[in-house]
Amino acid sequence: MAKGTIGEYAIQLCRRAIGNFLENSTALSLAENEVPLKALKEKKGCFVTLHKGGELRGCIGNIGANAALYESIARNAALAAFNDPRFAPLSAKEFPAIDIEVSVLSKPVALRYKSPQELLKKLNRKKGVIICKGGRSATFLPQVWTHVKGKEQFLSELCMKAGLGSDGWKGKGLCVQTYTVKAYKEKRVDKQAMAIPGF
């Protein structure tokens, strides 16, 4: 990844947000004029995923485009590190071993279907999926496709995540949306790099 790209800034921002919380126990606050890239000022949904030794260590995000991207990235990085209920808060000792991935979401689009079979046929393995029914909802990023055996398992696990039961996708009234992501993965050299000017 070329120096100065959106991806590099996004990763550096995550590290700064997590590091700031470790040092000061406060959320990172940036003024818009401190953000050097226009694309980071656009309102988009995003997820921040943390891995340690190849294993998930935290993942938090927002689907709705309700804040500037740089604000969402910083907030979600801290939440993934310290507020994912599946994991203990990240320690300062663990921090250097964490690998970071930022996923920037496109606007979700409704996927219309008339039967479970048609739903399976229309699912695209390159897209993330959102489901909702009766006030319950859940999403899987496109990256999840690499960890399941097929579309049925993908939907079953997504429905279980939403609290709808593994066969929830076979019933009526399930709303489905899909989206694409632009994923930015941290390179090992990024961890040794100096902070980007302006950050």
Automatic annotation (TrEMBL):
Task: List the InterPro entries.
Answer: AMMECR1, AMMECR1_dom_sf, AMMECR1_domain, AMMECR1_N, AmmeMemoSam_A
Q: Which domain of life is it from?
A: Archaea
List the SUPFAM superfamilies hit by this protein, alphabetically. Answer: AMMECR1-like
Annotated ranges, domain AMMECR1? 5-195
Q: Name one Pfam family in it.
A: AMMECR1
Output the PROSITE patterns linked to this UniProt entry: AMMECR1
Know the name of this protein? AmmeMemoRadiSam system protein A
Native organism: Candidatus Iainarchaeum sp
Q: Which gene encodes it?
A: amrA
